[in-house]
Amino acid sequence: MTYSIPGSVDETRRLILKGAAVVALAGLGGIRFGLAPALAAANDKYPEAAFKVKGTDDAIKALYGKTAEKSDKVKMDAPEIAENGAVVPIAVTTTLADVTSISILVAENPNALAASYTIPAGTMPSVANRLKMAKTSNVIAIVEAGGKLYSASKEVKVTVGGCGG
Amino acid sequence: MRLTFRSAAAGLILATLTFGGAQMSHAADNPNPPADLKAFQKYFTDKFPKVKLEDFVNGPYSMDEGLYKQWKEKEEFPPYEFALDAGKELFNKPFKNGKSFADCFPNKGIGVRQNYPYFDEKQGKVVTLELAVNQCLESNGEKPFSYTKDDMASVTAYMAFTSRGKPFDIKIPNDPRALAAYENGKRYFYTRRGQLNFSCATCHVQSPGDHIRAEVLAPALGILNAMPIYRSEWGGMGTISRRFTSCNSQVRAVPLKPQDDEYRDLEYYLSYVSNGLPISGPGARP
Amino acid sequence: MASTIRVRATSSGDTTEVQALIQHPMDSGFVKNAAGALIPPHFIQQVTFEHGGKPVFVADWGPAVSKDPYVKFSFKGGKKGDELKISWVDNKGVSDSSTAKIQ
User: Fold this and answer.
1) Residue C98 to residue C93: CA distance in whole angstroms
2) What is this model's ipTM?
3) Which of 1.10.760.10, 1.20.140.10, 1.20.210.10, 1.20.1250.20 is the CATH number of B81-161?
4) Which of A112, B66, B132, B226 is deepest in the core (most CB within 10 A)?
5) Does A82 lie at the interface with B, CB-CB under 8 angstroms?
6) What is the rounded average pLDDT of the residues B202-209?
7) From the CA of B62, how many Å to the nearest CA of chain A?
8) Regions of chain A short of the pLDDT cut 70
9) Is the CB of residue A86 less than 8 Å away from at least one CB of chain B?
């Protein structure tokens, strides 16, 4: 709601939030170097380039520097027909061991990569989220396990596009 | 191409016979809301024998398995959550004069959604919850909310939430003006309008569960129980006022002003014939 | 001002399930406003979930994540009463953070 008003409110909020972040940093800085500046350092690790690539293959290469092989151990739960392209529930899970990340791509979106999740040791290789889809498309799940990439894909029909306009 | 009003003409004749014709021809002489209610609910339970009466409040999700699953997922952390929190805050925030919404409503406004709209004999008109919210603001020297979304949606979302599970309990007092309002709302519901020449009933009585272009049409029975709603199509919340005006626009009719007499009468009729079905708002819709 | 972050973290013995909903427009940069002008991209890029001073989940998001994004995951460990810290930062440098207790 804050964001529906462009301009001043947004600006004010940003200032407030920046202030808050600084406080948080100051508060935590002494405890653990490297972790506390998560907010500040976040953008360094953010794979910006991979999110700007067009096709699926190129996005996977930009993100991981390698290609994926299909695996029936990667399971994706996505609707046959999305109720609305603006909110498409997609869940990915796998029985593969040593999973370090899970990524989801929508082939027909302007930029294929939608989300990429880091899975530290001790976190289950399973994630659910809601994505936008411009039109009917293959959705591709990538699981990085033991340094290799595995994929699954499923077509989701979109009758009401989720990209407005 | 996807406009799947199969045998629209035949279906319409049926609908007209069931609701419009048979009753409307007598309506002028002998309005009978309880009989309307019974026939209305029977029509839906006959048309959808697998859907439980109380599940009609879940709209299109009660008629399509794929949609139902997506809805269940959304409800795990529903998109109206932020509006609900904002509504609670607004509801409890004192006005400049120290009073608050609680002072304007029976039971301090908690758990009362199911009693709106009601016919106000003093004002001589139907008072909806949205109108009551703005009357409350204005009588306390506050600026009224805009009717279609934002604050109005948030406050009514919170009020609906505190009333979840309570059956709609709309009363038609023994006042000829109340009955006239009900009949007027009913007339509005079954009257065709707009360039598409659709009535409310064309989509929501005759064709619920069918697709109109890409959307699954919601049944009229229970449609208001879920209000206000977070609609993915809107990318946000909308009130009953928003639903009525956007429906009119979709059939390419010129919408009335929110809370116009006819809309309030329509809400009165449509809520009355859903009596007994639980309040489920706020809702999430495609 | 209310937080932009809503979190439900529930422990069921050895695992904790986390669900989060964040209030954010997630403007893709491909949508036009009513006046026909493109709405500039404005989306969350990274969300970090930390438990016991350690990240347990990091989400990197592009503009194709839905408005008011939702995410669900589970991790081993985490007891009732433990704190879970959630922070996000978007492409304009706006950020927010919140702490939730595991239920």
Assistant:
1) 17
2) 0.94
3) 1.10.760.10
4) A112
5) yes
6) 90
7) 13
8) 1-44, 161-165
9) yes
